[in-house]
C-alpha cells in the first residue's frame, strides 16, 4: 500500500488534504529526507528543521504561481520532495542528479537559484514588484534563517521593501543555528526575547491589557504596538515598514497554516517569525546539528560513527594546524572567519587563542574590511574564507586592502572544483579575479607540505597575499613541523624532459607529472600565479618547443593567461596549450569524475597534449 506521500506528485494535490493528513505527510517527508541523505550525503539538520514549514507553505500558497525563495537553499529537500522530485532523491548531489540547492533549470517550483546566504529578500522583493508592475496578483515569499539575517544585504533589502506596497512575506526561520552557531548582537537580541518564561508571561500580560482596553481602534492599536514593542522583535522589523507576526512554532501545522492564510490576505510587506529546531524529528541531529549539518553516508539507526584517522590530511586541517603553530609563534596573528569556523578549520585556534579569534557572522564584506582595520594597527590578520565567498567581498578586497597595501593573508579554502555543492560553491575564479589587483599576490601550493610553507611565506609579507588550496584530502605529502617559508614568487623544475614543458599551478602538478612520464616532458611547479616566476619561465621557454599550462581554475584570465602575457612582454613566441576549467559552470558531482570529464586527470592531460602537439614533435619515453 503506497504511503500518503507517494500519492503526492505536486503541491496541488497537497492543497486538497486536510490538516490531519498534512501531519502524516510531514512525518513521511521527514523520513524520506533521512533515508535519502543517509545514502547520498548532504545537508540534513537544516532540512529536517523545515519540513512542517515547507508543507504549510505549499498547502497555503498557490505555488509555483506564488513564488517561494529559499535563502541559501540547503533546506530545500522537503521542497523538492513535494514538487515532483521525490523519486529522483536517490540522485541527490550525484553527477547528473538533483542539485542540493534550488535551480531554475531543474523545476518551475525553484523560482530563484540560491546557495550563497542572504539573497532571498532582495530576490523576492524583485519578484513582488515585478508582479505589481505587470498587474499580476501573486505572492512572493522569502524564507531566511537567523544566521543569514546577520548579513548586511538582508537589511538593505528590508530597508527597500518597507517603503513599497507589494505582496511580500518574509519568513524568519529562527533555529539559532547557521553552519556554525550564529554570532552577533541581532542573534543575541532574538535569543533573549524568545527565551524562557519571560516571553510567555509578557505576551499573556499584553493580551490581558488589550482585553480590558476601550474598544476604540486607534487606542487599541497603540496599546498593542506598545505591548509588542516591549517583548518581541516587532519594534525592529516594524521600523523597517513590515507588519510583524510571531513568533510561532515552526513545527506546529495548527499554528502555521492559519497564520499563513491570514498573512496571505493582508496588504503590504509582512514579516513572520517562526521558531524551528535543526534536526527536528531525528534525535541525534537535534543533539548535534553541527555534526549533522552536511554528513556523508551513514546508518540512520546508528548515526555518525567516529571517523578513522584519514591516511592523508585535508588541506583545511593543514591550514588549521599552521594557524595554531604560527599563532603561538607570533602574537600579532589574529584569525578571522565569516561564520565558517568548522568548515575553514578554526575550531582548535578558537580554543587555544580565544582572544585572537573573530567570527564576524555571515558578513564577508565586513570580514575583509575588519581585517584591514586590524592590519592598520600593526596586527597580522589571517582571513579564512572559501574562494567562492571571497567574491562577495571583492570591492573591499580592492579598496580597503589592496589600495592601502595592507598585510592581510587570505587562506582560500575550496579553490577549484568542490564536488557535490556544484557551481555555486566552486572556487573557479579566484586566480582571474585576484591576479588583476595591484599589490596582491596569489600562491598555488601543489600539496600539503607546500601549503604550510606558502602560508608562512604569505604571512611574512608586508603586502596582501592569497593562498588558494582545494577541498578535501591532499596528495599524501606530509607537512614539515617547522614554519619555514618558501622563496617568494619562485617556482621549481620537478621533472626534466624534452621539447614540451608543462607548467603546473597547484595540485594538478601530480597528474601532470604522471602524464609527463609517458610524454618525456618537462614539468615545472610554478607555485605562484602572481608574481609569476618570469626568470624561470624565460629559461624553460627558451629550452622547449612548446608550453602547456595546467590549473584547476578558469582558463579565461587564469594562470595560463598570465603565462601568455609574460611571454608577450618577454618577446618570446611559443605555442601554448592552456588546460583548466572551461568557460561554463561545472555541475555537481564527484570531483575526480568531474576532473576526468574535463580532461584534467593524467590521461586527459596526456590526450590533450598529444592532440595539440602531434608526432614527431612528441617523443614518447
From TrEMBL:
Cross-referenced Pfam families: DXP_synthase_N, Transket_pyr, Transketolase_C
A GO cellular component entry from the record: cytosol
Any GO BP: terpenoid biosynthetic process
Family: Belongs to the transketolase family. DXPS subfamily.
Enzyme class, first EC level, given as a word: transferase
SUPFAM superfamilies: Thiamin diphosphate-binding fold (THDP-binding) (SSF52518), TK C-terminal domain-like (SSF52922)
UniProt catalytic activity: D-glyceraldehyde 3-phosphate + pyruvate + H(+) = 1-deoxy-D-xylulose 5-phosphate + CO2
Subunit structure: Homodimer.
Protein known as: 1-deoxy-D-xylulose-5-phosphate synthase
Protein species of origin: Comamonas serinivorans
UniProt EC number: 2.2.1.7
One Gene Ontology term of the molecular function aspect: thiamine pyrophosphate binding
Co-factor requirement: Mg(2+); thiamine diphosphate
Described purpose of this protein according to its UniProt entry: Catalyzes the acyloin condensation reaction between C atoms 2 and 3 of pyruvate and glyceraldehyde 3-phosphate to yield 1-deoxy-D-xylulose-5-phosphate (DXP).
Residues that coordinate or bind thiamine diphosphate: 74, 115-117, 147-148, 175, 282, 364
Ranges for domain Transketolase-like pyrimidine-binding: 313-477
CDD domains, per the entry: TPP_DXS (cd02007), TPP_PYR_DXS_TK_like (cd07033)
Free-text remark on how the cofactor is bound: Binds 1 Mg(2+) ion per subunit.
Keyword tRNA processing part of the UniProt annotation: no
Pathway of action: Metabolic intermediate biosynthesis; 1-deoxy-D-xylulose 5-phosphate biosynthesis; 1-deoxy-D-xylulose 5-phosphate from D-glyceraldehyde 3-phosphate and pyruvate: step 1/1
Keywords: Isoprene biosynthesis, Magnesium, Metal-binding, Thiamine biosynthesis, Thiamine pyrophosphate, Transferase
Residues annotated as binding Mg(2+): 146, 175
Amino acid at each position: 500500500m503506497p504511503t500518503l506521500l507517494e500519492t503526492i506528485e505536486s503541491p496541488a494535490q497537497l492543497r486538497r488534504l486536510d490538516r490531519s493528513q498534512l501531519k502524516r505527510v510531514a512525518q513521511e517527508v521527514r523520513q524520506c529526507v533521512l533515508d535519502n541523505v543517509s545514502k547520498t550525503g548532504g545537508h540534513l539538520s537544516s532540512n529536517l528543521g523545515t519540513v512542517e514549514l515547507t508543507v504549510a507553505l505549499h498547502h497555503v500558497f498557490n505555488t509555483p504561481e506564488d513564488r517561494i525563495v529559499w535563502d541559501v537553499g540547503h533546506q530545500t529537500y522537503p521542497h523538492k520532495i513535494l514538487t515532483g522530485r521525490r523519486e529522483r532523491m536517490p540522485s541527490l548531489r550525484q553527477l547528473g542528479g538533483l542539485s542540493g540547492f534550488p535551480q531554475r533549470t531543474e523545476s518551475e517550483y525553484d523560482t530563484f537559484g540560491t546557495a550563497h546566504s542572504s539573497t532571498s529578500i532582495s530576490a523576492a522583493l524583485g519578484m513582488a514588484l515585478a508582479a505589481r508592475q505587470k498587474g499580476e496578483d501573486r505572492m512572493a515569499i522569502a524564507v531566511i534563517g537567523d544566521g543569514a539575517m546577520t548579513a548586511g544585504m538582508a537589511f538593505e533589502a528590508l530597508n527597500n521593501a518597507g517603503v513599497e506596497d507589494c505582496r511580500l512575506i518574509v519568513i524568519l526561520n529562527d533555529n539559532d543555528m547557521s553552519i556554525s552557531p550564529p554570532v552577533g548582537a541581532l542573534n543575541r537580541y532574538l535569543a533573549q526575547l524568545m527565551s524562557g518564561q519571560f516571553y510567555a508571561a509578557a505576551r499573556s500580560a499584553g493580551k490581558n491589557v488589550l482585553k480590558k482596553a476601550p474598544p476604540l481602534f486607534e487606542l487599541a492599536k497603540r496599546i498593542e504596538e506598545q505591548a509588542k514593542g516591549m517583548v518581541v522583535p516587532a519594534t525592529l522589523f516594524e521600523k523597517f515598514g513590515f507588519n510583524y507576526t510571531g513568533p510561532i512554532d515552526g513545527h506546529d501545522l495548527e499554528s502555521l497554516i492559519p497564520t499563513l492564510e491570514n498573512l496571505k490576505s493582508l496588504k503590504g510587506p509582512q514579516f513572520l517569525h517562526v521558531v524551528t529546531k535543526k534536526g527536528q524529528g531525528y534525535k541525534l541531529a537535534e543533539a548535534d546539528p553541527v555534526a549533522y549539518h552536511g554528513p556523508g553516508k551513514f546508518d540512520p539507526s546508528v548515526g555518525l560513527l567516529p571517523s578513522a584517522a584519514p591516511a592523508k590530511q585535508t588541506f583545511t586541517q593543514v591550514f588549521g594546524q599552521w594557524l595554531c603553530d604560527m599563532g603561538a609563534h607570533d602574537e600579532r596573528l589574529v584569525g578571522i572567519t565569516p561564520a565558517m569556523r568548522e568548515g575553514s578549520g578554526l575550531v582548535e585556534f578558537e580554543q587555544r587563542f580565544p582572544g585572537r579569534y573573530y567570527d564576524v557572522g555571515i558578513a564577508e564584506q565586513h570580514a575583509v574590511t575588519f581585517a584591514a582595520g586590524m592590519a592598520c594597527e600593526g596586527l597580522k590578520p589571517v582571513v579564512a574564507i572559501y574562494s567562492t565567498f571571497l567574491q562577495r567581498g571583492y570591492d573591499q578586497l580592492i579598496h580597503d586592502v589592496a589600495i592601502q597595501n595592507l598585510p592581510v593573508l587570505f587562506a582560500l579554502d575550496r579553490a577549484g572544483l568542490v564536488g557535490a555543492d556544484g557551481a555555486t560553491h566552486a572556487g573557479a575564479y579566484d586566480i582571474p579575479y585576484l591576479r588583476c589587483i595591484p599589490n596582491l599576490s596569489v600562491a598555488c601550493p601543489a600539496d600539503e607540505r607546500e601549503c604550510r610553507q606558502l602560508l608562512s611565506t604569505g604571512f611574512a609579507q608586508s603586502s596582501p597575499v592569497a593562498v588558494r588550496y582545494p577541498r578535501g584530502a591532499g596528495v599524501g605529502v606530509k607537512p614539515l613541523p617547522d614554519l619555514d617559508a618558501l622563496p617568494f614568487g619562485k617556482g621549481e623544475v620537478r621533472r626534466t624532459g624534452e621539447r614540451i614543458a608543462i607548467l603546473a599551478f597547484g595540485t594538478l602538478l601530480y597528474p601532470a607529472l604522471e602524464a609527463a612520464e609517458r610524454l618525456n616532458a618537462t614539468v615545472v611547479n610554478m607555485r605562484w600565479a602572481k608574481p609569476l616566476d618570469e626568470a624561470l619561465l624565460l629559461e624553460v621557454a627558451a629550452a622547449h618547443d612548446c608550453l602547456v599550462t595546467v590549473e584547476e581554475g578558469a582558463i579565461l584570465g587564469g594562470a595560463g593567461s598570465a603565462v601568455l602575457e609574460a611571454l608577450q612582454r618577454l618577446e618570446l613566441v611559443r605555442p601554448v596549450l592552456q588546460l583548466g576549467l572551461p568557460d561554463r559552470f561545472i555541475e555537481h558531482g564527484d570531483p575526480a569524475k568531474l576532473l576526468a570529464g574535463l580532461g584534467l586527470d593524467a590521461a586527459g592531460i596526456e590526450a590533450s597534449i598529444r592532440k595539440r602537439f602531434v608526432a614527431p614533435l612528441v617523443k614518447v619515453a
